[in-house]
Amino acid sequence: MKRSLELLHELEVAGGQRPIQLDLFRRAAYDASALELDGPEPAANELLQELIGLDLNNLTPLEALQVLSSWQNKARAEGNNNE
Fold it and tell me: Which among 1, 5, 21, 50 is most buried, taking Cβ atoms within 10 Å?
């Protein structure tokens, strides 16, 4: 986001008076690690644990749909709690 703002500023400063060659591949002057998340949300971590625990080779199509439905209901409930 910061880099896009820098490019926009360069374009605005030029004001269309002259062609400008932007260095699109210049390395960012900020620490990209600040954009990383601290870790999965508790609900996502719970979902991952359920997923790891599934025996996909022995899961019937109906059971798979039931699991998906359960996850969808949890996601919807979590979404309603965040509003």
Answer: 50
